[in-house]
Amino acid sequence: MPISTGDHIPTLDLTQDNGRPYAPAADRWRVLFFFPKTATSHCQLQARQYQAHLADFQALNVDVVGINGDPRQEQLKFRGVCQLDYPLLNDQAQRVSAQFDLLDDPWPGEQVRRPRRETFLVDPHGVVRRHWTQVEPGQDAAAVLGSVRDLLAGESSQLLV
Q: What is the rounded CA–CA span in Å between residue 50 and residue 66?
């Protein structure tokens, strides 16, 4: 069953691209953005946009986390190309992408299924407060940042759909 607004997310028992287990910081919001492939310009654009807004997210007590199923070495290369300062989680076994119901059919010429590009805003209690399914890579970070500001400013006291 898909994870959406109002749901608790499953435990993200994944390893970061640096080889260390991922442990979310207590009492912080999280942006989880799933992306299909590190070696594409759209995924690099999305990741760079999050990096460009990272200080704004951090000032609002929000951590940014990218999730992808490519091998760790490809994620490390992606980190270097995009100059990222936030964690990339390795979901090569596709367990978390499957739990979020994000796996698409394999791309032409490939055998592996890849996650759809979707973004989740998760509150400190692990509840999805916002879920984006039609993600534009160049606008995702700014849209999410705007929603975070609205939520934290009290402009929306209800869960968004």
A: 9
The helix (H) or strand (E) run that includes residue 149 is helix 140-152
CA 39 to chain centre: 17
Please choose, from the candidates 41, 64, 37, 39, the residue with its C-alpha nearest in 3D space to the C-alpha of residue 52.
Answer: 64
- Burial letters 29-59, b for 16+ CB under 10 A, else e: bbbbbbbbbbeeeebbbbbbbbbebbeebee
Question: What is the domain-level CATH number for residue 74?
Answer: 3.40.30.10
Looking at the structure of the chain, the number of domains it has is 1
pTM comes to 0.91
CA distance 42 to 121: 20
CA nearest to 56, candidates 158, 122, 147: 147
Per-residue model confidence as pLDDT tens digits over 70-105: 999 999 999 999 999 999 999 999 999 999 999 988
Tell me the residue range of the domain where 101 lies: 25-152
